[in-house]
Amino acid sequence: MSYFYGLLNLPWWGYVIFTAVCVHITMSSITLYLHRHQAHSALSLHPAVAHFFRFWLWLTTGMKTNQWVAVHRKHHAFSDKEGDPHSPVVEGITKVLFEGAELYRKAKADPETIKKYSVGTPKDWIERHIYSAKFLRGKLGVVLMLFIDILLLGEPGIIVWAIQMIATPLFAAGGINGLGHYFGYRNFECADAATNITPFGFLVAGEELHNNHHAYPTSAKFSIKRWEFDIGWVYICILSFFGLAKVKHLPPKKQLLSDVKDVDIDAVKAVIVNRLQLISTYGRDVITPVFISERNNTLNSKKYRLFSRKMLRLIIRHKRLLKKHDIHLIEKALKLSHNLTLVCQYRERLQLIWEKTAKNNKELIVSLQGWCKDAEASGVDALVKFSHYIKRHRLVAKTH
Fold this sequence. Notes:
By secondary structure, the protein is mainly alpha-helical. Helix content is about 60%, strand content about 5%. The chain has 2 domains: about 5-245, no CATH class; about 255-395, no CATH class. The strands form 3 sheets. A two-stranded antiparallel sheet has the order 1-4. The chain has a two-stranded parallel ribbon with strand order 2-3. Helix 1 packs across helix 2, helix 5 packs across helix 9 (about 155-180) and helix 16 (about 340-355) packs antiparallel against helix 17 (about 360-375).
């Protein structure tokens, strides 16, 4: 046996597979343990599974649970606003992509952030005396990983270790925190700029579906559409099958009743809980057809340029993400169309209803009934259909 190539003595492709598997375990540990389990309590994990993830992250990243969780919770509290530890909207995409790890280090060094946002993270003996020990500047785990890689793989293990060390800053700190708030598609118009980088969550174990996560942060499942795939959710299902995990929260599900004549409290509850899905549907089924109709009416006019696909995206986009120039363009387009102005006003009225969740149920019912009555009297076919759609809304009882 040649110890120069380690105890495993792998062929070249063996090193590739070994590295890919190790990095994927790290990404899966981040999303399942740190993110979904610890930061958001979306699922519970068997103590043995949770500790394996914690141990693996200590070896491959040196990250401390309380620090990661605190920084991430603060990110949600100030998402894409001043105070967000790593927002490309605030810091710029270049800085987050290439200096994401530095932004994380700066945020975790703030004792107030750790104290306020790390509630509920492990504080047991092994966390205090081993995983958070200051020996070797807190890098005991990653140094141990270096020796393990060299022992198993020989000199190529140094390269494998280096890849393991840069994977998290590259894919998570830079990629998800950067591209996940800059590039991609959006299923939901939340108040932050979170996007789904790709509908197929393989590389970073489902974290690619970042817009879905920001819409429903406490959900254990990140995929929403039928054509989206979250491999992290697959692992959760496997763990659940063996009794090693338990799902606590999922995105709300709706059912549509037939022959419903008016709004009741069950409809109000469904509308409030499903508000992000509802406003997304409103953009697709109300604003979009009205916009296309108005664009067709100005086909041979100089005004046609205002009714571009970009303009439609701006009108549907959450108003907090619009720039002054965008708002000016929208105002110019709305002045040319009574119906488009009307459906935008009805969207704002609808949003105001679920912002009144602190009010009593009777007032909420009256508000939604009034909205539906006015929508049906508007003469806009898309609004009439959407009013009937709202009345049919009900929540599906939880089964997990």
